[in-house]
Write the structure tokens for this entry.
Amino acid sequence: MLQFVSMDTQKLIAFFLGVLVLFAIGAVFQLTQGVVLPLIIAMLLSFTLHPLVKLFMKIGIPRIIAITIVVLLIIGLFYLVSLFLYSSIKNFIQEYPRYEKKLQLLINDLTGGLLVRLDVSENWLTDLNWSAAIRPQIVTWSSGFMRFMGKVGITIIFLIFLLLENPYFRAKLKKAFPIHTARGVGIMLEHITRQIGRYLMVRLLISIATATITFVILISTGLDFPVIWTTVAFIFNFIPSIGSIFVVIVITLAAVVQFYPDLGTPIIIGILMATLQIGMGNFIEPKIQGDRLNLSPFIILASLLFWGWLWGVVGMLIAVPLMVAIKIICENISFLKPVSVLMGTGLTRRRGRRTKNK
């Protein structure tokens, strides 16, 4: 009896120690986010881009040149997207008065006689001192953008060194451990790297495909600022379920404001966007990715809250890829496999049917 009590006490102590360690790690990550966040993003990017580097090497390009090409491609794409976004945001600021009138008309129609009963002017939206309200926000966003650009620079530096370091890691293992141990650890790390890289690459390609189709839908329906909304769709596609719902709602609301009082076009846009998100999320991605790497909805929500609290919007965007990477690592380490199972949905796809794991 005393032995059972002792074992239960040890488990309880171990549990609370684990909770304390998690809080301690969270505090350290919060304090060191200026370095840790770019490092984690660089690690995720290295998993994604390493196959591309290997592809260049297979066609005879030296490793250092292959890494240079990949990094320059990333910087070039980032620059082009930033340029298009800057141009779109500038146009949005110039066109804002037109949207302000549409938004005021929409709100007045929705509220009906409520504004009259409350003795509020129907032009209350125009009467607000927007310049005084927006100016501090612009300063805040500008400083935040400069900090973000600084983190991008650090991330690129980390990424270069991680890609350069990759081929020498196996040699270090052989020197650090006995031959059998080094071989086993090397195989395990190779499996982890391959699985994480495949997941991130598939997720990236699906996000690009979703963004491309979104752009075509918005251009064909005449929605203004398609680059902004396409970028939003691409970024939030990395957040399963919640991101898709957010994208559909935001783009549909933007269409309502632009086309009001015509509601036909916004309804068409909403239906097309919902169909796209459902098709990609429920059919295309599971077909390519499989169900093995699916996270439980609770884990997704908890990770979004935790990493969002820790690192803001960027933390929310990398939360799911990071948790999938952790799940893959746990899956490849025997004593951590139960953790991987608990993080999953408990469902597998067999012969086109979803069944519970037994």
Observations:
- Residues 291-358 form one domain.
- The radius of gyration is 25 Å.
